[in-house]
Amino acid sequence: MKIPAKLANYINGKLQTPSNKKYFDNPNPSTGKSLCKIPASNEKDVSLAVKAAEKAFPAWSKTSSQERFKILNNIAELILKNLEDLALAESMDSGKPLWLSRSVDIPRAHQNFQFFATAQMQFASESHHMPGEAINYTLRQPIGVVGCISPWNLPLYLFTWKIAPALATGNCVVAKPSEITPCTAYLLGKICIQAGLPAGVLNIIHGMGADAGQAIVVHPKVKAISFTGGTVTGARIASLAAPKFKKLSLELGGKNPNIIFADCDFKKMLKTTVASSFGNNGQICLCGSRIYIEASIYEKFKRAFVKKVKQMKVGDPLAKDSNLGAISSMGHLEKILGHIEIAKEEGAKILYGGKQIKLKGKYKNGAYLEPTVLEGLDPSCRTNQEEIFGPVVTLTPFKNEKQAIALANSTAYGLSATVWTNDLNRAHRLGEELDAGIVWVNCWLKRDLRTPFGGVKNSGVGREGGWEALRFFTEPKNVCISY
Ligand code: NAD
Predict the structure, then answer these.
(1) Pocket of ligand 1 from Cβ distances under 6 Å
(2) Are 442 and 465 within one domain?
(3) Cα radius of gyration (the chain)
(4) Which of 207, 220, 125, 115 shows the shortest CA–CA distance to 163?
(5) Among 35, 78, 96, 165, which is 20 to 30 Å from 371 by CA?
(6) Which residues constitute the domain of residue 307?
(7) pLDDT digits (tens, 9 = 90+) for 409-419
(8) What residues contact 378, with CB distance under 8 A and at least 6 apart?
(9) Do 95 and 230 sit in the same domain of this protein?
(10) pTM of the model
(11) What does the mean pLDDT of the chain come to?
């Protein structure tokens, strides 16, 4: 499975050129060279996709759960079979190390299909008995045509995290991957053809958010939108979809705290904190970018952390020893560098990093950045309040638990939080007090796909994962039978 010179939309079971025949360039961020051309689809293509989805819906929604399992599991198996090609495509498209796409992104896309193929077979609905009078039972029916829109940081991983539960519950889908990383979504279309997914059940449209994405959101026949991306885009989508009473799931930005108490397992904490700060170049919505350290171990932590960060190798994503690859795009690199300039103006002391890296030869035009560690900033400054979504963290000391909680809760975001402590009571107290959809204690990014996933405050509305996703993609209907 190779990336062609021009990607195609996947509509009604076929790979199709965009109706306006227009394309735009998709550069490889590790070299700056063109990787392929992306269809610049618009509302005409979305309209064709919605028509195909509407046509496919009656049969797909009535397909037995065993048959749906079989087809979705075929897709899962084909993802695994094509792991190497998909991992390579993901790395060239996003700049992330090949070892990372191979060990995390693509295996997780496989698991997403496998998990929801199985989960829909176990999904059940409630009944409510009124003794001597009536029985109520709840039907959970597919919604119809739904839209799934995803970002560039975990391309196939997050795309399939939405599509799999939507299809599993009997919906037909019009989906759009990020225009920054469309390649594995294109390959998924080819996999679906091989897997025997009926035409029109899934349609994948490529293009810009304002054109193809927005056309999905406003289309009157698209009844629900599952979106993952930035908070500003989420607000725009909500403003367009809410007056049309569409069901909405919004997974948005984060500015996650990592709270380190002196009583933690220092070695384990240090190793995990390097990963939670710089994994995927800090471009995971769950990365901990605000590190709060109990004052008594602040200097010890700072020395040990900076020493480890200095050892990280930034380089060619295809090289085995690169800890970090390229930033996802030159535009995003410039945005992160702009944030570093703001941090300097706000009085940050740069403990390590802060500069763009110029590699040699083939990689000289790639988007590389030093992992960056900052200290000395006020918790209320922009650097500590705004999502940077890159390899940039701030270190701040705290005096006691109360102050740590106040600092952690001091932003407009509330996606995840990490706590390091060996005090069991404190761990439970923080679990209760932190404004976050997910709290990790003495670990980070430990994921059980059955758990609710999502954020509070500006980090989003609704939850994905497990039953939450199956509930989102179904409409509950109460049937009351009197006797
Ligand atoms: P983005 O909001 O710019 O784009 C996300 C998707 O929305 C893309 O496919 C884009 O084309 C599309 N889009 C843009 N404008 C649109 C519009 N008007 N209508 C419909 N679709 C539109 O986000 P991004 O830069 O791709 O991703 C980074 C952001 O995603 C970060 O803020 C990060 O925190 C967030 N994120 C959140 C989670 C989570 O689970 N909460 C996970 C990953 C990433």
Answers:
(1) 149-153, 158, 176, 178-179, 209-210, 213-214, 217, 228-230, 233, 236-237, 251-254, 285, 387, 389, 415, 455, 459-460
(2) no
(3) 23
(4) 115
(5) 35
(6) 256-450
(7) 999 999 999 99
(8) 346, 347, 384
(9) yes
(10) 0.97
(11) 98
